[in-house]
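Page 47, continued from p. 46.
Same chain as before, 507 aa.
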Amino acid sequence: MTTDITAPRRAGRREWAGLAVLGLPTLLLSIDNSVLFLALPQLSAHLGPSPNQELWIMDSYGFLIAGLLVTMGGLGDRIGRRRLLLIGAAAFGAASVVAAYSVSAEMLIAARVLLGIAAATLMPTSLGLITMMFPAGKQRGLAIGVFISCFMGGAALGPVVGGVLLEAFWWGSVFLIGVPVMLLLLVAGPLVLPAHRGSGSGGLDLPSVALSLAAVLPVVYGLKELAGDGPSWRALLAVLVGVTAGVAFVRRQRGLADPLLDLRLFGNRAFSIALGILLCGMIMQGGVYLVVGQYLQLVEGLSPLEAGLWLVTPAVAIVAGSLLAPVLARRFSPSAVIGTGMVISAAGWLVLATAGSGTGLTLLVVGLVVGFLGCSPIGALGTELVVGSAPPERAGSASSVSETSGELGIALGIATLGSLLGIVYRGQVAGALPAGLPSEAVEAAEGTLAGAVTAARELPPGQAADVLDVARTAFTSGLGAVAVAAAVLSACLAVLAVTMLRGLRQA
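Result:
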């Protein structure tokens, strides 16, 4: 009997222990991304930030993550992924303490900026390390599924953990949960994570770093502005600046011997198609989450914690699907698993489209569970295809592109599906409001549902009830339109996966 000496080695106990260690900060980062929404009222009362400062407190963290992922992926390939991971963990823990005990809005903004920079080191280095620790494709697929499920689990736990902490402690406690996790990573990381350095031997090209930031940050900012306020010259200019910087970034990478991002990765069909499916999947999930979150609070009247609890079950469905998808891919091809999942997802979104005010929340949650369950193979198998198709020495760069695609996808989903919601909402509200309303109330109610809720507080009870009824009915119609759009996108992704990823299997 002969032994296949070319077969990738299988991971052992140390590697699985390392995966558990990497899963903790991933879980934390996802929690940290959502928990601040609940803490904002308390910290605003304590620190008294201006409206502009509130936006910086909320957005600076995500902006810095999105803008620096490519840079940190390339840096990890150069100086070593474990080293960068541990540096980022120490910085994240220290910045968490500063954020928790901030005495001014300016101090908290600075801490959030540091948290974003530190967090940008953790995601691509973690995925890059997983690629090295699990060279066998089937094991790697399962490991990435576990990694993705930790991220999705954090999204589910964020509102719950935040609600519990804010009931018992002060607003700064939501930041302190990161300290023990990072201390554990600093202690256990050197014991169970491999020290590996990629082949990128040159120094970090600073103009490339600047161009990558100039490409991603304005685009994310512009998309958020488009989603919040509709088309404006400022939002469109930001997107144009970002696209222009992106073109300049690509041209510079082509001329460098050791580029920050190796564009040859995009020549691999599996890499490019899987990346596109990941982007579209995040568009769908980001847009649906935005609309449903508002629906639960503004139409159904739930508190942020109650809304978060209703969203736990759909998030658990994503976790379960992320763990199941790699197992199914051992028997069936990734294209079949992703394609079938997209068909299931489309059915779930169509169920969601029928849910509305007066039908109860059961139908809505069923639609979300089925929709997100069908989407889950995209995260697990799509990420595995992206990272697994890159050479080991470029695993950090491939991971950073995957993560950046997710960040941009969420921003695109919020902008595009949020804009669709706004178009439907404004179209139904216009002309349907009761006569005799003050012009300020009409303008607010025709803008957004949140504006209608605010305006209704200043109106007599009868008029307020009429305004809210019109606005909530219009928003429910917008939810249905977004769900139908998500179903169409799911169907298109099913066709794309089955046709373009055919023949690809786990290594």
